[in-house]
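Lab notebook, bench 4. The sequencing result for the construct came back, and we need a structural model before the next group meeting so we can plan mutations. Quick request posted to the team channel:

Model the 3D structure of this chain.
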Amino acid sequence: MPRRPNAVTYPVATWTLLLVVFLCGFVWPGKAQTSPVVTVEHRPNSPAQQKKHYVILISMDGFRYDYVERYNAANLKAMASGGASAPDGMIPSYPSVTFPNHYTLVTGLYPEHHGIVGNTFYDPARKEVYSYRDAAIVNDGTWYGGTPLWVLAQQQGMRAACFFWPGSEAAIQGDRPSYYAKYDEHYPNAKRVEQVLDWLRLPGPERPHFITLYFSDTDDAGHKYGPDSTEVADAVHELDKEVGALEAGIKRLKLPVDVIAVADHGMAAIQGGWIGLDQNGLNVSLLQKSEGLSLYANSDMAAEQLFESLEGSSDKFRVFRRKEVPINLHFDLSPREGDPVIVATGPYAIRAVSDDSNSMPAAGNHGFDPMVVPEMKAMFIAEGPDIRPSTRIAPFENVDVYPFIAKMLGLDIASLKTGAIDGTLAPLQPALSARSGKK
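Done. Here's the predicted structure in token form:
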């Protein structure tokens, strides 16, 4: 996940004084920390929901599909062996960046349908910029479409919890998870795992059945050092260790818990230096706004002029009028996507406007079309009582994770208030055991 400055923490509101003391009293060597967990008053789990299994969805940001084997992640390999996996990867939505894909995983919608089309983007109708760096914007539920899994669960009488996840801090459809955490990149990984286990130790009426857990280590290392680095190998082993700790804790609790480990995208080694669109025909005077590679023209005529000036100017990118973006990218509908649309033809560092510095791009990056840059494909592994052992799944789109989890939790998605999703259960149906969803 991109790092968001100015993250704040709040003491947890809890059901018992003991839980208040536990959650608010962490002290680390040389630094006092307050738990970032917030409790929201919701009705208890309904009697029917209390009988159901549990799902923990773990995201390891930037964890490429081949890292498990490449860096010998023992605990994840054991999960894959005992459960289901996609050895050749899960296909992220375009653009293959953090906020759009995390929100796709929990809504079953492509970014242009749920509205979070980038980590930063401009909304011409609102005349506002969405930025992951702005906590007030990120926490504004009016930016988010679709029905996240935690909202769906709670609408159907099932409690949910999120230890970090894009969108989980916002009131979407007026609702937040029963338990959620304000993003703090410095919060120790081991304590994140322990908090998830503590949620599972709650009494049945209060215990969340859907839980998210997020780690950024592999993304951080991949950007700074590249996917082939020893630092990425170290990050993989660190997160694999936490998976082992979580699995051991679940085993002690003796609860029917399914664990799904995914990533939002992969990581590719960047080739060459910066490529400036302004050095390839971009006339910035025709822009109303630009955010990253997203161009927002002053008018339709200006958009056409920009397209004509950029088309064919470099073999490092292609340019399209938004309505003509290839259908497989699902990126031709929303004004938030900009117009014209720039699509890199490889792992190249492209920006709208050059600067005078001699700085080099990050060693590793993502955001590319996964059909052109296969290193964008993400990890997918699932294990638990609802998962068929030793199942290998062909590459599938990440919109399909939503109906997969809904099926495992026995949640109804047929009558979503926000309309039909883009995902389908079919690619992941073979991974489900015969009893899944029949609790």
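The chain has two domains: 39-269+373-431, 274-361.
Will bring this to the meeting.
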